[in-house]
Amino acid sequence: MKNANLNPIESNFFYRKKSNETKLNSFIFSVHNKTLHNFISEKILYFRDSTRKLILRSPLFNTNTNLLNEGVLLTTFLMLISAAFLFYELQPSFEQYNLEKLNSVWGVSFLILSVSLFAYKTSFFLFKVYLYLKYKSIRSVSDEKLPTCTIIVPAYNEGQLVWETLNSIAESDYPKNKLQIVAIDDGSKDDTWFWINKAKLDLGERLTIFQQPINKGKRHALYHGFNLGIGSIFVTIDSDSIVKKDTLRNLVTPFVTNENCGAVAGNVRVLNNKKAMLPKMLNVSFVMSFEFVRSAESVLGSVLCTPGALAAYRRDAVLACLPEWINQTFMNKPSDIGEDRAMTNMILKQGREVLFQRNAHVLTNVPESYKSLYKMFIRWGRSNVRENIMMAKYVFTNFRKDSKVGARLLFFNQFLNIVMTYPMLFFMVFFVITHPLLFLSSTLLSILIISSFPVLFYAKRYSFSESVWAYTYSILYTFGLFWITPYAIVTAGKSGWLTREIA
């Protein structure tokens, strides 16, 4: 009984030392029932707030998820290998089909068109490989040379994630006296404003916050941030994105080394790629889109789109086109999508270069469901149509003192993709109806061949086990998302964000 008078600290120590003695355990817990109550309450709160994380981390969940992922990948390889075998077995049918085409005018015309397109696409791909090999990231300059920078984070229904985004920005190794952070709540319907205020309490004067009374759209939120910003460089970061410590300094360095640089695109990777399959596929796709395609575009000084997840703009370049950008219309309707592509286009039109920094990383959330994915792609597709029309108005003028060939080639490639959308769609439908087995085998074999490049590219830079998702993604896109571009073209005049829902 001498231990009954121990203070809580001594009692806890005594409990830890004698934890294997059940009698003493029960005695100590009965004496310190208030401490026990607090302990249990804390664990209950932790369990309530972390239920989802605990489920995701449980062995059963991970086992089921891994089995499902492995099953999908196994099915993918079985489909591709079977298609290659079927293609081999159907060679007589392919030969007969080609002979039939050669005996008709339309068949010969189609063959000439197909060969020409294949030759062009192959040449353009090799050209991009050459540009990629020439690309080099620009290493960060010293703190003294770094410019003043305003970080703008527009948020809508992001909840706690906006707080994590703002904290990742605050933890950057960018000089604190040269960094202004601005968070704009775009009339959220959830607790986003609460988390922005929490970030304000944590960061103090380093963070400027503003709440729009109603939801006006991301473009208007950014517009308010541009007007509040005092830095010579504006950086926009999505509120569901996390930056690395050296991201900001790497991102803005090209403005110091290149006086004609008007904008810089960051390197976007997927944040939520550890659980759902779609993010795993998109992670590989993003590496191709950014680290290969944008690297090539950067060598030409003509990156066509600075991503909303992470982009930097020279203040003077933004202010020069800000009135046109905020008042942009399409088919007499205000443009409420594609604000990043529009800003990039307007800065290119000024004759400035738009570059890519592979060493400026950001992790961002991507859709985990098919519905959210196709809505995001529809929005991107509509923006692509709109901005290609805008680019056509200046790309063949004397808009830049330096070489304009690269920008024109990139525009022509995108324009050709849009123009050929419906002819290729009609041919695909006709081929499916008349020769379904030939279509299936040749299409899957093409996926196996063409998708091997992103697989090898990703495997060399990161991981082979993750790279094989490129095959699955290509199958999904070919058979499940092929309709998006045709639909986006005919609905280019429609407005709406489509994916802005309560998190």
Automatic annotation (TrEMBL):
Keywords of the record: Cell membrane, Glycosyltransferase, Membrane, Transferase, Transmembrane, Transmembrane helix
Major subcellular location class: membrane
Pfam families attached to this UniProt entry: Glyco_tranf_2_3
Amino-acid biosynthesis as UniProt keyword: no
UniProt xrefs under InterPro entries: Nucleotide-diphossugar_trans (IPR029044)
Keyword Transmembrane recorded: yes
Compartments (UniProt record): Cell membrane
TM helices/strands, residue ranges: 67-88, 108-133, 409-433, 439-459, 471-490
Protein name, per record: Glycosyltransferase family 2 protein
Source organism of this protein record: Flavobacterium jejuense
